[in-house]
Amino acid sequence: MRFHLCRFLPEDDVDLEALVNDMNSSLESLYSTCSSQQTESTPLLHNGQTSSSHQHHHHHTSLRRSQPMHILAVRRLQVEEQQLRTSSLPAIPNPFPELCSPASSPVLSPGSLPPGEPSTGKYIVKIFSEDGMGKVVEIPADMTARDLCQLLVYKSHCVDNNSWALVEHHPLLGLERCLEDHELVVQVQASMNSDSRFLFRKNYAKYEFFRNPLTFFPEHMVAWCQETNRPIPPSQLLQNFLATSSCPEIQGYLYVKEMGRKSWKKIYMFLRRSGLYCSTKGTSKEPRHLQLLADLEDSNIFTVITGKKQHGAPTDYGFCIKPNKGRGELKELRLLCAEDEQGRTCWMTAFRLFKYGIVLYQNFKIPQQRKTLISHFPAPVRSVSENSLVAMDFSGRIGRVIDNPVEAQSAAMEEGHAWRKRSQRMNILGSHSPLHHSSLSSVIHIAQLWFHGRISREESHRIIHQQGQVDGLFLLRVSQSNPKAFVLTLCHHQKIKHFQILPCEEDGQVFFSLDDGATKFTDLIQLVEFYQLNRGVLPCKLKHPCTVVAL
């Protein structure tokens, strides 16, 4: 039996000795004619060592003459070997994002890595909350905006109702937009400037147009509705936007900022799948009168948050179309302005539908499908201990179980009235307990997500605008005109309304009322819970609380 000693090399390594010997043998004929001496020796490597592979076959092959070596060739082989060895290293997160490239990217850019370095691995992303505090998160290259929102919800212990969004914010340009759920965060970050940042906030209006399309697309702005001269069912209206075979069109007047000037011009515009067009002759749709202003495929639509102050916009309802491959300069933006909030919402929603199509509907359906899967698993709504509870009557000498549900409900109401009388009696006596009911009712609402403390009227408008102007979006704040009162700020039909909550005293106890004392509540939590179930004097029920979380 024979044993052979073999040498195994990794796939990525290079055998320098074999490469040098091959080069020696290829140049042997060239240097043999010029050599004046013939000396029997083995080829030498660049470090002066004898080739082991050549000694192994010394008895089977003829003796070779010593050949001169090119040092540059050997160095080139060493560099190639080093590049091959480092090509499999992962991307290295930058521990000092403030000191990196001029773009101030929080990740080492591919250009700063050695040649051949793959752009895969982990990336560092910094997310900011509404209070300005940031959180650094390490994410993979293929993480979407939805996945990152889910991660932040988990880390921040927030309520997950699929209304959280990642916002691309440009403070110097005064622009922001919500990322679509399927967009890759790393790709978006690569196109952002050094002053731009990601924000984590609520956006209830992200897919609201799938639930109430007629609110987002008024008939006078949809060309197809005007041509048919009849009301369009909501399902058919959405199908026309999602189907690639149909050709819906949004039309209407918009203010357009002239390139290189500070003036704005009112022009009749058309939004189609192929792009945004303006008419050079009134409201004409003829091709010779249409001029292309922006392409949808290579652009994104942003909300202008400082239109009047920074750009001199004629109204507060500005938006712009920003190219993806631009350098983020002001001259590259196509600034537009609508007459009202409904018009701006219609143009921006149609832009998203034309660009992404059925992908938006799939993003809207994913959370609902997830809820359906969870509902298939049977889970008790109440615990075993709760199911074992029964109503008891201890008015007599011996307690008894109340079997009649009507009697049990009346007993619960009597117990509630008795508790209120006891609390009123405590108010009269002036209890100094730290859990005194009057003091508790005045501060119990501070920890609620919908309470925003002492903010101005303008600040409440800004928060409502940022979190999506849908029906039932609300917050509570302290009144600026009356320090003892509160204000309910509510959105209805894309308009913001304010309702004052006044304190009223009865039998020595303080109550809160929204309708001049007709309906009284012991604290603001009871008031909010009541109007979440009943509309009362409000235009709609309270549905979505404005929430600001700290990361």
From TrEMBL:
Residues 450-546 form the SH2 domain. Keywords: Cytoplasm, Phosphoprotein, SH2 domain. Residues 54-63 have a biased composition (Basic residues). Residues 121-205 form the Ras-associating domain. It comes from the Eukaryota. One of its GO terms (molecular function) is insulin receptor binding. PROSITE patterns: PH_DOMAIN, RA, SH2. Residues 247-356 form the PH domain. Residues 38-67 are annotated as: Disordered. Pfam families: BPS (PF08947), PH (PF00169), RA_2 (PF21989), SH2 (PF00017). The keyword Chloroplast does not apply. GO terms for biological process: insulin receptor signaling pathway; negative regulation of insulin receptor signaling pathway; negative regulation of Wnt signaling pathway. Residues 38-48 have a biased composition (Polar residues). The keyword Chloroplast does not apply. One of its GO terms (cellular component) is cytoplasm. It is found in: Cytoplasm. Belongs to the GRB7/10/14 family. This is Growth factor receptor-bound protein 10-like. It comes from Echeneis naucrates. The gene is grb10b.
